[in-house]
């Protein structure tokens, strides 16, 4: 007598039939009457139409790198029919980063989000809030945000000249985010540590704010360091960035007549790797000069540091025409080797010794308009580490540093 829309009684079988639509959720009181034309009988009953159960399933991904975009994917299905449900809104999240999407024909929803939270363990989730026809559902999976790649480079003053026997040294490193198109811009405050090869700390600095275009510079000043040449290891630590260590060389020297000193970085013409160096040679009235030679070679994720305080011959000469240029040739023996694991900054001593011949040219001095003078450097090592960077007649132009031959 009062059937819902689309409900009715089959006139032949007498069966009451009704397939509710999505708009017919709720309780319905229905009265049915049967009559033979003389006598009628009514029967009243209640039909409750419930919302259909759904199953939300988070699909992928389960990892991503800080500051990078990821496409979160989920599927919403009818729990009874297992078919995908189209045209319904879903919320997809990683940690506190949220994206919204609408399911397609197969019930799949995708949302593009940027991983702006620090690296670490997160939860990725997909949820459907429900509507008049469907019950809500949610699903989640563990998600790992990995650190963004960065590069730390020693870019400080390689040669510090003094008139005394000690001098503080300003150490500088440049930290650069990976150029992957999505900068995190969270370098401000990242600590950078400068250490000796034995692990002792020379000084620690933080990248100041603001940071422009994913690049920051950290500088600190050491305590007074004695005359000499030393290798140092530069590392950074951050909850959002990971970078290999770098190795540099700093030299504290006196610029007296007849001496030769220098420090800096050149490119190996053989494999295009970067090579750092430092040397200091002070001639003596009798015997070999005093000083040191430090040479850093890089191969893959390992830096080899060769160092000697046993110098041989030192010869210097200067041109008589302008622009004036001075050259030096220096030999060293009994060079010990220390390796630096650039992935961790860990050091290790290696057996065996090497010898070296150094050629250097002092063409000009640094200035505000010429921070890196057109000085040149070459070296050849033999023994445990046979390798060469140029030659006497083919010295490499400095990319960082200075050579001083007064």
Task: Write up this protein.
The chain is mainly beta and 406 residues long. It has strands at 8-9, 16-17, 26-35, 40-49, 54-60, 63-65, 69-78, 89-94, 97-102, 108-114, 120-128, 137-146, 148-154, 159-161, 166-167, 170-177, 191-196, 201-206, 215-221, 225-226, 228-236, 241-244, 246-253, 260-267, 274-282, 290-299, 302-308, 310-318, 326-341, 347-362, 376-383, 387-389, 396-397, 400-404. The mean pLDDT is 93. The relative contact order is 0.10. The chain has three domains: 8-49, no CATH class; 54-146, Immunoglobulins (Immunoglobulin-like, Sandwich), CATH 2.60.40.10; 149-404, Immunoglobulins (Immunoglobulin-like). Strands 24, 25, 26, 27, 28, 29, 30, 31, 32, 33 and 34 form an eleven-stranded antiparallel β-sheet that branches. Strands 6-12-11-8-9 form a five-stranded mixed β-sheet, with no helix packed on it. 0% of the residues lie in helices and 58% in strands.
Q: Which geometry do the CA atoms define?
A: rod-shaped
The averaged pLDDT comes out at: 93
Which second-level CATH architecture of the largest domain applies?
A: Sandwich
Note the total helix count: 0
Kindly state the percentage of residues in helix: under 10%
State the separation between the terminal residues, measured CA to CA.
114 Å
Which structural category do the helix and sheet elements fall into? mainly beta
Low-confidence stretches: none
CATH class of the largest domain: Mainly Beta
Characterize the biggest β-sheet: 11 strands, antiparallel
Strand content: over 45%
Count of separate structural domains: 3
Number of strands: 34
CATH superfamily of the largest domain: Immunoglobulins
The Rg value, from CA coordinates, equals 37 Å
Question: Might you state the CATH topology name of the largest domain?
Answer: Immunoglobulin-like
């Amino acid at each position: 007598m009062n059937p819902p829309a689309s409900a009715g009684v089959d006139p032949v079988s007498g069966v009451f039939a009704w397939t509710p639509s999505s708009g017919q959720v709720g309780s319905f009181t229905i009265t049915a009457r049967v009559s033979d034309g003389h006598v009628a009988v009514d029967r009243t009953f209640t039909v409750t139409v419930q919302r259909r159960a759904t199953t939300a399933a988070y699909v992928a991904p389960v990892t991503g790198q800080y500051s990078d975009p990821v496409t979160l994917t989920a599927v919403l299905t009818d729990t009874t029919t297992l078919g995908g449900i189209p045209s319904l809104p879903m919320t997809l999240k990683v940690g506190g980063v949220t994206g919204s999407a609408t399911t397609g024909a197969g019930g799949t929803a995708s949302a593009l989000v940027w991983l702006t939270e620090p690296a670490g363990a997160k939860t990725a989730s997909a949820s459907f809030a429900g509507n008049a026809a469907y019950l809500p559902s949610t699903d989640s999976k563990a998600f790992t945000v990995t650190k963004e790649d960065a590069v730390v480079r020693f870019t400080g003053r390689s040669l510090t000249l003094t008139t005394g026997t000690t001098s503080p040294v300003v150490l500088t490193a440049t930290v650069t985010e990976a150029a992957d198109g999505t900068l995190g811009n969270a370098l401000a405050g990242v600590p950078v540590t400068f250490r000796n090869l034995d692990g002792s700390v020379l000084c620690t600095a933080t990248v100041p704010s603001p940071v422009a275009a994913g690049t920051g510079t950290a500088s600190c000043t050491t305590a007074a360091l004695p005359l000499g040449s030393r290798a140092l290891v530069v590392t950074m630590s951050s909850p959002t960035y990971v970078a290999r260590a770098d190795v540099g060389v700093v030299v504290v020297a006196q610029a007296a007549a007849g001496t030769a000193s220098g420090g800096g970085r050149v490119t190996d013409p053989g494999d295009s790797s970067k090579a750092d160096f430092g040397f200091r040679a002070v001639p003596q009235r009798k015997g070999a000069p005093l000083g040191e030679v430090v040479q850093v070679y890089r191969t893959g994720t390992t830096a080899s540091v060769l160092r000697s305080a046993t110098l041989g011959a030192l010869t210097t000469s200067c041109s008589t025409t302008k622009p004036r240029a001075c050259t030096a040739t220096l030999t060293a023996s009994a060079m010990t080797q220390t390796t630096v694991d650039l992935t961790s900054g860990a050091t290790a001593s290696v057996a065996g010794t090497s010898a070296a011949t150094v050629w250097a040219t002092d063409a000009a001095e640094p200035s505000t308009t010429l921070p890196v003078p057109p000085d040149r450097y070459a070296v050849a090592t033999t023994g445990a580490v046979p390798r060469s960077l140029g030659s006497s007649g083919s010295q490499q132009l400095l990319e960082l540093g200075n050579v001083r031959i007064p």
